[in-house]
Amino acid sequence: MPYVETSISIAAPIRKVYELAKEQERFPEFMPDVEAVIVLERHPDRALTRWKTLVEEAPIEWTEEDRFDDDAIRIDYRLTEGDLDKFEGAWTFAEDGGVTNVVLSVEYDFGVPTLAELIGPTLQRKVQENSQMMLEALKREAERTA
């Protein structure tokens, strides 16, 4: 399974960055490739959300379950249905001297082996770029409101 990991350092308190990351319905406000995130269910320790994003101007939609571990300051997510066969990973947060380090990991499978063979490296690069874009947008928003 292809795997991508991206990271960023954010000049904001860890709890602020974590709470912002839990508010996925706000992502379209400050993440240009995220068209919509609709919260289908929200509970203190989890949420079910419907996503619509653009990758190279192509819409991709899915529903995911996010599990919030407030003690570990971690968000684990996994696809429940959508345009991909597998899409899961984690947001992890660590604080070092007032700076929050965020790592976003993604394991994915587009479900079309022939497509993966033909354009696998391009898909991996796009997932990497999209993940980095999400982290950079989170950084801008967290630092803007810190």
Structure in words:
The protein is α+β, with helices and mostly antiparallel strands and 146 residues long. It has one domain (3-144): 2-Layer Sandwich (Alpha-D-Glucose-1,6-Bisphosphate, Chain A, domain 4), CATH 3.30.530.20. Helices cover 31% and strands 49% of the residues. The protein has three helices and seven strands, in the order βααββββββα. Strands 1-7-6-5-4-3-2 form a seven-stranded antiparallel beta sheet, covered by helices on one side. The chain is globular. The mean pLDDT is 90.
Could you list some keywords that capture this structure?
7-stranded antiparallel β-sheet; 146 residues; Alpha-D-Glucose-1,6-Bisphosphate, Chain A, domain 4; 49% strand; alpha+beta
